[in-house]
Structures are given as C-alpha cells and as structure tokens.
Amino acid sequence: MKRILFISSVSIYLLLINISCRVDIIEPNNPAGNKNIPVREGKENYFNVAINADKLTTEMNFDANFSSEVNSILLKVNDKQSGTCTLRIISSDNRILYSSIIEISDIDVRQRINQGIPSKIRLIYDNFTGKIKIVISKSSF
To answer: Which of these, 123, 63, 54, lies nearest to 83 by C-alpha position?
Structure first.
C-alpha cells in the first residue's frame, strides 16, 4: 500500500513539474506560430492585423470602423523572403487613401492619412513569405 501511494505521489509530482516547465507555448494572438492565418483586432478608429505568411497567394479584405479623417498608419515587415504584398486602404466612397507594394525585406513606415475615412483594408499576396503588421489608428497630431 505504501509503495502504491509513493508511486502515485511521485507520478503526480513529475506531471506537475512537466506542465509548469513548458516554455514552447505561443502566447494567444501571436501570429508567430500560425502560418497564413491573420490575427486581427478592430474597434472604432483602430485597426490592427498581423500575419506570418508562408508562400501565400490570396486576397484578404477587412472592414474598418473609422469616423475620423485624420489617421495614421504603422506598417512593419520583417523576415520577408519572397513574393510581394499590396496593401490598399480604401474609403467608403471607394477611393484609395493609401497604397503600398511590399517588395523589400525590412520596412518600418509611419505615415499620416488624411484624405478620407478608411472603410476597407485590402491585402493582395503573391507568393509572399514574411511577417507583416499593420496598425491604423486615429491620429493625435
């Protein structure tokens, strides 16, 4: 009986140590482990999308909820290895407020957009491999 109790106690102890020592868990909403699946957050006057693309060829369209005509964009690209990605921010009257073709490896763009109210974000991937993060928000300047 003591032997069974001892073995059970040791087993539970080892199980608890194994669970608590996991360091390979990816945090929620971290696109690092999710290939070709965008992680997106949107609320009034704020839009955020990140993707870890791997040979991705597709078009993605997202709705945006903006009421401000003065906004800013943050565009970051890391680890780009191949292909292109075209980003377009479109107003409610179908005007292109911002357009960029991503062809180089590391990009860190911060720019003001004040030509209209963003309504849609369109990403067009052509065999693209790399990490992209786009944040659009109401500008304070």
So the answer is: 54
